[in-house]
Design goal:
- There is one protein chain.
- The strands form six sheets. This protein has a five-stranded mixed sheet with strand order 5-4-1-6-11, sandwiched between helices. Strands 16-13-19-17-18 form a five-stranded mixed sheet.
- The chain is α/β, with parallel strands linked by helices.
- The two termini are 27 Å apart.
- Helix 3 (80-91) packs across helix 5, helix 5 packs across helix 6 (182-188) and helix 8 (263-275) packs parallel to helix 10 (298-310).
- The chain is built from twelve helices and 19 strands.
- The longest helix is centred in the middle third of the chain and has 14 residues, at 208-221.
- The chain is elongated, with a radius of gyration of 25 Å.
- It binds magnesium ion.
- Magnesium ion (MG) is lined by residues 232, 234, 257, 263, 266.
Length: 386
């Protein structure tokens, strides 16, 4: 059975705060939407994945999904229902038997849940839902009114799964009617919708506090901790500035290199690559390749971070030490931390930059060049031996 996951990520997510739509906000350095896609990609039942996005978010989307194998994104409509219909229309000719329609803001659908949903998919719809443990009361103006029987009440989650042609026909028939979700569309079109047990881990990120919950969840489920170290040297040459940890610093000399010679970002890139056993910066960006001549080294660091994300991992912490007599690093330290945190999408508290001299000894002591070393701590999913 060919199954497609249609991920709906076209909303504005205003309740979550922040200056980005919530699906693109980083959780431990990885955009929320990418966490969701990683979880779905880990499910063997899912043949392909397509994402419905907002027309204004194309650049954010491309950056968030870099390196992931996905169907082309679909531009959504004014409502979630319209976005789903447009997504289904775009997949109509692809011959999928079934579709799992999923909220982009539910980043942790467990594999066991997807298996349970797919196993039960037949002629009607299947939705995951959970009962209520708390008792329910109506209230009016802050005064408690009568109790509500919770026995027949459920909290509905996604993905909601349907036979492809049937749910597309239902969406076409009911286009423009304001229905709460796809199960409501299916039901209104006369399809039978059945419930399977949902999962508490499959929560939706809506409020700012949900980001903290998501962060805790990731830390609990990325227990395979790896450490990598990197070292780099560039020699001084003619010039009037250097690039150090992504920050331009005026100096009486420049640093010689094929790229921008940012010794700090090179050491850090190697540390991250080392932690995931992905060789070194020279293998990914050969120094003889004209594409990298004068290249800004943030690209190398971004690439290393994208490889970590491709493993379902997160960068827990990075620590860079600059070794030189001059320039003085301390006036630029805060800018360097902010720059690295920005490139990696990390909270600055997870980034350290420090400096030392070598007391006039050795090549750095003779002011012939600058050295840098770095350590990166990466957390990968426990049990993933890739
Ligand atoms: Mg280098």
């Amino acid at each position: 059975m060919a199954l497609v996951a249609l991920v709906v990520a076209a909303g504005r997510g205003l309740r979550a705060g922040g200056d980005l739509p919530k699906q693109y906000q980083p959780i431990l350095g990885v955009p929320l939407l990418r966490h969701t896609l990683n979880a779905l990609r880990a499910c063997p039942e899912i043949t392909a994945i397509a994402v419905v996005i907002h027309a204004a978010d194309r650049a954010l989307y491309e950056k968030a999904v870099a390196g992931l194998e996905l169907l082309p994104p679909v531009i959504g409509g004014a409502t979630r229902q319209e976005s789903v219909r447009l997504g289904l229309e775009s997949l109509d000719a692809a011959g999928f038997d079934g579709v799992l329609i999923h909220d982009g803001a539910r980043p942790f659908p467990p594999r066991s849940l997807i298996a349970r949903i797919v196993e039960n998919l037949a002629t009607g719809g299947i939705i995951p839902a959970l009962g209520l443990a708390d008792s329910l009361r109506r209230a009016e103006n802050g005064r408690m009114a009568e109790a509500v029987d919770r026995e027949h009440l459920y909290r509905v989650q996604t993905p909601q799964a349907f036979p492809f042609e049937a749910i597309l026909a239902a969406h076409r028939k009911l286009a423009g009617q304001a229905l709460t979700d796809d199960s409501a569309v299916a039901q209104a079109a006369g399809m039978e919708v059945r419930i399977v047990t949902g999962d508490e881990d499959n929560f939706k990120v809506t409020e700012p506090a949900d980001f903290q919950r998501a962060e805790r969840h990731i830390l609990m489920t990325r227990g395979d901790i790896r450490t990598g170290q990197g070292f780099d040297v560039h020699r001084f040459g003619p010039g009037d500035h250097i690039m150090l940890c992504g920050v331009k610093i005026p100096h009486a000399q420049g640093l010689v290199g094929h790229s921008d010679a940012d010794v700090g970002l090179h050491a850090l890139t190697d540390a991250i690559l080392g932690a995931i056993g992905a060789a070194d910066i020279g293998q990914h960006f050969p120094p003889g390749d004209p594409r990298w001549k004068g290249a800004s080294s943030d690209r190398f660091l971004e690439h290393a971070a994208s490889l970590v994300a491709a493993h379902g991992g997160i960068i827990a912490h990075v620590d860079v030490t600059i070794i030189c007599e001059a320039p003085k690093v301390s006036p630029h330290r805060a800018a360097m931390v902010a720059r690295i945190a920005g490139i990696l999408g990390l909270n600055p508290s997870r980034v350290s930059v420090k400096a030392t001299t070598t007391e006039g000894l050795g090549f750095t002591g003779r002011r012939e060049g600058i050295a840098a070393q770095a350590v990166a701590t990466i957390r990968l999913p426990a049990g993933d031996n890739s």
